[in-house]
Each structure stands twice: as structure tokens, then as C-alpha cells.
Amino acid sequence: PHPSLCCPPGGPQLGPKRPGRARSLLGSQRKRRKSATPDPKEKQTCDIRLRVRAEYCQHDSALHGNVFSNKQDPLERQFERFNQANTILKSRDLGSIICDIKFSELTYLDAFWRDYINGSLLEALKGVFITDSLKQAVGHEAIKLLVNVDEEDYELGRQKLLRNLMLHTAP
């Protein structure tokens, strides 16, 4: 389950997605970083991927009355209605933002994770994304903000920073 916050009408609207490009760049950068062998004397960092997504809380009002078909064949009718609903839902996609955050200190990583788990991060991001202009763009509809950080990224990053700590504190 992802932490989410259902905002009052006029919640955040994120810019349109640019499919593929950001993901492929980030994916290739991430692969390069993982394959490089680190210098044991050099202080290591870890990357944590933060995903923030805004979604409408309800889609019923947009779909109701806008999805119909007069096709006689039940299968054709169902297919046409599905395509119409799909088009409407895609047009309501508010997008998402993906951030790779670099940590070099274990205490900061742990504080970030704690804030993610207890919902403080979500609340802070709500303050960043929900602006007056975004409220105006979305209008009267309620929006929810979804925030996700992979626990596996956190655990791997924590292990890496713990090794740093042990290497640099050992006599």
C-alpha cells in the first residue's frame, strides 16, 4: 500500500508525463552506477528513488454520460465503450515526478525513511505540489497525492552507508 492523501478540490496537478525518455536515461544511469566498482577509501553514496504521483480521487463524473455505444453487437459495443473510457481516463492523467535522491549520511537516509513511513514526507510534499495555480487548473475535483519509495532501495542504501561508516570509523 502506498501512502496517499486525498486533497480537497483543487489539489495538485503535475505536468504532463514524457513517456520513456526520463525512464530510459535514469535506468541507464542507474545501471552504470551499480556496475562501477567503488574505491574503498572514497566515501560512498546511495540513491533512493522517490515517486510522487497526483491522481483524481473520483472518475465517475467524467465517465458518466460520456461513455456510450449504439453498436448492435455486444462485443463491439463493449469494445467501443472500453476505448472511450480509456481515452477519457488517459486525458485525466495528471502525471508523476520521479526523483533520485543521493544520500551520503546514514542519519539523513534514516530520517528520510522515517518521514516516509510516518507520513511526514507526504504532508511536506502536499505543501510543495498544491499551489493556487494547480488548484485552479484542476477545478472542483478532489485530488490524491501518492508517494512511493522502494523499501529495497532503502535497505540496500542503508547497508552501503553502514559499510561507509565502519570503514571510516575503523582505526
Automatic annotation (TrEMBL):
Statement: the UniProt record of this protein carries the keyword Plastid: no
GO biological process, one term: extrinsic apoptotic signaling pathway via death domain receptors
One of the record's GO molecular function terms: DNA binding
Domain TRADD-like N-terminal: 73-133
Coiled-coil intervals, chain numbering: none
This protein's GO CC annotations: nucleolus
Annotated stretches, region: Disordered: 1-44
Keywords (A to Z) from UniProt: Apoptosis
PANTHER family to which the protein is assigned, alphabetical: DEATH EFFECTOR DOMAIN-CONTAINING PROTEIN
Name used for this protein in its record: DEDD protein
Organism the protein comes from: Cardinalis cardinalis
Gene name for this UniProt entry: Dedd
